[in-house]
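Our consortium's second objective concerns turning raw sequence data into structural hypotheses that experimental partners can test. To show how far this objective has progressed, the report includes one record in full. It was chosen at random from the queue rather than selected for favorable results. The single chain below, 70 residues long, was entered without modification.
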Amino acid sequence: MATSNTVKGPASYFPSIETNYGKPISHWMEVLRSAGPRKHMAYVALLKTDHGLGHGHANALVAAYLDQAK
């Protein structure tokens, strides 16, 4: 059985995020890191209101950020 190399989960949004907003994922991770401790939706709100990201893109970044912070 062939193994799929398709990226799944929040990272599947990363190419679109980089294309649409012109910044690498490392930039967005630094924005989240600099924001200090917050709850998931507070991070999402920050990205949407302060940086103009759409909800799905903001949510994917926050999910990935919080997952790597575990």
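The partners drew two points from this record. The chain is about 65% helix and 0% strand. The first helix runs from residue 14 to 21. Both points have been shared with the crystallography group to help prioritize constructs.
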